[in-house]
Model the fold of this input.
Amino acid sequence: MPDGTMSTGGGPLTVGGLGEAGILRILNRRFAAVPASQDWPEGTVGPGDDAAVVAAPDGRFVITTDAMAQDRDFRMTWPAASSPGATAATRAGGSFAGGYATGWKAAAQNLSDINAMGAEPSGLLLALTMPSSTSLAWIEGLAAGLAAAVIHLGASRCRVVGGDLGSDDRITLAVTATGDLQGRAPSRRTLSVGRQDLPEGSDPGLDLILSGQAGWAAAGLDVLDTGRDELLRRLEAAEEAGLPGVRRAAALAASAQLRPRPPLGAGQRAAESGALAMMDVSDGLLKDTGRLAAANRLHAELDPEWVQAEARALRPLAQALDRDAEHWVRAGGEDYGLLAVLPAGGSAGSRLPAGFRRIGRLVSRAAAETAGGEEQSGAETNGGPDGWDHFSAPFRSRPQIR
Amino acid sequence: MPDGTMSTGGGPLTVGGLGEAGILRILNRRFAAVPASQDWPEGTVGPGDDAAVVAAPDGRFVITTDAMAQDRDFRMTWPAASSPGATAATRAGGSFAGGYATGWKAAAQNLSDINAMGAEPSGLLLALTMPSSTSLAWIEGLAAGLAAAVIHLGASRCRVVGGDLGSDDRITLAVTATGDLQGRAPSRRTLSVGRQDLPEGSDPGLDLILSGQAGWAAAGLDVLDTGRDELLRRLEAAEEAGLPGVRRAAALAASAQLRPRPPLGAGQRAAESGALAMMDVSDGLLKDTGRLAAANRLHAELDPEWVQAEARALRPLAQALDRDAEHWVRAGGEDYGLLAVLPAGGSAGSRLPAGFRRIGRLVSRAAAETAGGEEQSGAETNGGPDGWDHFSAPFRSRPQIR
Done:
């Protein structure tokens, strides 16, 4: 039991009786589990002051922020040990209600953005608003999950450097991450000008490569959205019908949704290998390859054979849940893989960085219209079935997890 | 009318039909008004990528974040031109609903934290969640107010470098600010060890100094919380009773609440003048001087004569509203003045930096008990009447502006 906690009439312990100082004690104790927290270099300042001071060895730093709202970007009821997605990590988070997965995801999606700039994470800040009825278990889980993601994703030089607490009727959190650069930061728009202005129909010779998986987090959301009894019934029926490994696939998919694993370090490797542009895949391959292409006035084509191969391991689970495995792969978000552009394979400049696979290519617009590949719109169109837009029309009024 | 906006059945225009790209266009056009946005130095990256890249000339950077929730930290109904607090700046924000004041405050309180570390603001990030029913006027106001604060507070090297949009039932925003350092960053705890361990009852010789005003923002909240008709009635009655300048004081107070003016630059000046510790005053002088003292195992005493003098200009307004002007000065938050500690006056080391006034001193604990001054608790006690704690017990269930 944390120091200073108070019972509120026999119900679950809540943050209401703790005061800001008490809540900060709980958070800071969990954040101290992050290895780099043991060492604050000369000239840096950690939490507890008006602002933190963070080292920027390159004379620049990378920074990103993401907001998450209750029932939109996370669920209070996200499962713990008893779910089909139970793994060692889930069981460790079992007493933390949905907070553990929420903290993990908040850290992971921000660390992924740092990775996508070819940088190494250096700091996290947590701005949190919540009602006084928020359970201590949830807040302990949030902090533990956030620290666990930093540790298990390998962000070994990253610390929680600050934050802010506020009260509200619902929980929202905004995590900010910073990172160190070493050399150039390939953005979404760094394809050389010469390549952008190719004649229509010509092939710019640009491969799309991916580190990390695609479709598993979306499959996991479908697993988590299926009622427990219904899920067990469907998995049993699938096993009886001879579909192999559906239980294990369901567990892996839930884990991919609750504890996504962006391939930290892949950004730096790709940058060193000559990647011309990079971005992380948060809203699905179709949407995000389309954005990357559009930023360079090109079109993206996913290799249909790669999509089929990537969908293979998901197919039995998709069948059990009446879903389409290839749709998960093409349109499913939140896997936080790293997408990059590399000069096309052949004799020169085509060395694939470790951990990456070729998944398609960028083509000029006219080429896209004649190619037999999987054509996509590069425009920032409505989310619809092909990816996620928070404010697409018609606005989705029911809670949605992007 | 912004490009691409859509009417929703004749009602006010909302963000629901715009999509993320449309909302981003509105925000980015407003943020482009910030002077530094015209120039992104080589090697830096602005909004539109996975993350931004910001220069850190000192090899370090300062960073802080603050969350604000609808009806807690800001109000949708914050007034525009027709209020008694109308000034040129308010009238400029008149068509923006409450968004303008919200954006200004969000920027101001974060820039204030950067100032309190002796740094110069370099970047802002905005993480925003909102319902699809949010009016375009509000969001335009938010962006315009944020940009206006950067411009009018003199953060001339600060840009909006990134952000994030999400949907939620209510509006929350989390602003992150970064800053450049030149030399040391006086924190709250940088008093030298020798001074911390003085014998009980001895005088450590440390003056409390303040740049900026105290009490006006709290007075402004009382002005804004008084119904319009009631306020006009009270102001007229006060004028008839011969109280001088109450209308003007009400306007200045409302402006202090809606558009606080942290003294940017004062942090760097104080650091150069040998300030030993600094922090900004967000939760009121009593609470914040208490925190600064407690961080150094000392007590804070406000000079009663200074409090009386500071309250003088607020007294007629306080009388009109049946409030206590000295309580506004001592306990009122959100003026975002800069508090610093300087070696006590005399021959050596006592040069007051420009814009600062001496408002009290730090004393050892035993000295505090015998001194006749205004004694305060250094402990992080309940907010109560002496300052604001978001999670004080009992939790305040009615909307409160800190």
In short: Chain B has two domains: 15-180, 193-386. Chain B touches chain A through 86 residues (CB under 8 Å). Residues 99-115 of chain B form the longest helix (17 residues).
